[in-house]
């Protein structure tokens, strides 16, 4: 019982902090993934845009899906949504609340990836160097149209033999990076203002409904955990009873077959219970064989 | 200590999070293995493909099998699958659930290896460098070389130090191209795996929740029942061994006393429990004989019931018991001369 109480208290107090912890870990993982990823722009006209935009948008989708998978509450919400009504009405406000809280936490890691990508600048330089207007840059202004595409595509590759120490390449690169960082900071600012407003203005609208929805969503979560714990405990007791019955039935069988004289004198109760009347190698072997070949029925009545 | 116990109990009761922990450790081990592995492309036309694809596909297979081997539940699954029906029916849903949950966990480390390999790019660069489109990327006006020569030159792309085809196609261009393809494949693979995992996890509550709850309960039950049975058997074995050894010492001491025709010595009244624990063996010679007998002639796995005459062939039948006044508590039920 004491163990139960400890575990319940742990679950009760830590449900939200576990979810916030996972959210934070994923955000850190996303930064680490970006820094350890070896970005290598192909520097070819048709491939640059696909590669650059792919690196900017595909990992956020992966991170979003990962957050949904790792968050236990998303399963709880789905179960609550799909369960038959039965004797308990379904409250859509609770489901909406759970959904919005899951989505908010799931958006953190993808947003971190996108912002870090933009602030770093490599993706945008790779994707949009081919779309630059060559007239704006001295080194590319007088080159033939066919060649200019090839040259612009090579801008992200600093070590390419054509681009080494090319001042126009540096100009294009700086220009694109400036745009990229401006975009990154703007997105960050807008998101933080939006989060701030949402949190600050929320008590002005429907506070009572919100409190109710939050209470019942916590309730559903805890109820499910306790149900699983109770099932575990029940199956433990069931197994215990089942095995006791099995040993008892073996003892009765041995008594029937061995015709032992009734024993006199005191006996050590503890030892007798633990031995179950099984005092022989053959009897032990028979017990183990019976356990494998004929498991007892799942009935402890 | 208390906190440790609580954490241990939490993990024990939460078998799933324990298995997830092992899963995560294997995934980390797989990344570590890849970074510690010294990739060495052979830079020869047909060997490149074999080496590159081998490094891409063979370790994941090994990791997958290892995932099954390290999972304790595999023997439980095998036992439940192969046991005769007896008095308890078999539920294929439970077997399927156990197998699926083990397979899902075993897939994680191989998937991590394949993604890390593709995102790094060395394997694909090595395997497919001979298939680089020279016409689009390279120098079309290069003097014609035979097909075999071109293959040999392209095969050296991964090995920068010995590459001699700079006029045919620049090394950096080819490497960048191959690496771009490899990374695109890697991200697509990761996206595919994540989408599959998401679908598997989220479609389940929509379709078969009741069946799932049933399978999960009974698979936990089978696991717990097996552990409890092992515990009960261990307790039984302990008691069995204790009684067997006590009967052995009793037998030894009685027979030695009978053989030497000593008068039964009454233990001094105030010696108490210590004298009882000596089991009648009180000198070096006797102890040595007991040890030798234990090694040469272990007793039968058969505990003497209390009322049956124990004809064990030793001299001394009919002798009075050695401890008439202070019978030992544990052995009184199993030892008496009639």
Automatic annotation (TrEMBL), chain A:
GO terms for biological process: ATP export. Its main location: membrane. The chain crosses the membrane at residues 49-71, 92-115, 182-201. It is found in: Membrane. It comes from the Eukaryota. Pfam families: Ca_hom_mod (PF14798). Keywords: Ion channel, Ion transport, Membrane, Transmembrane, Transmembrane helix, Transport. The keyword Methyltransferase does not apply. The keyword Transmembrane helix applies. It is a multi-pass membrane protein. GO terms for molecular function: monoatomic cation channel activity. GO terms for cellular component: plasma membrane. Coiled coil: none annotated. Belongs to the CALHM family. This is CAHM3 protein. It comes from Gymnorhina tibicen (Australian magpie). The lineage of its organism: Eukaryota, Metazoa, Chordata, Craniata, Vertebrata. The gene is Calhm3.
UniProtKB/TrEMBL annotation, chain B:
GO terms for cellular component: plasma membrane. It comes from the Eukaryota. GO terms for biological process: ATP export. Signal peptide: none annotated. Keywords: Ion channel, Ion transport, Membrane, Transmembrane, Transmembrane helix, Transport. The chain crosses the membrane at residues 21-37, 49-70, 184-203. The keyword Flavoprotein does not apply. One of its GO terms (molecular function) is monoatomic cation channel activity. It is found in: Membrane. InterPro entries: CALHM (IPR029569). The keyword Isomerase does not apply. Residues 310-338 are annotated as: Disordered. It is a multi-pass membrane protein. Its main location: membrane. It holds the Pfam family Ca_hom_mod. Belongs to the CALHM family. PANTHER family: CALCIUM HOMEOSTASIS MODULATOR PROTEIN, CALCIUM HOMEOSTASIS MODULATOR PROTEIN 1. This is CAHM1 protein. It comes from Gymnorhina tibicen (Australian magpie). The gene is Calhm1.
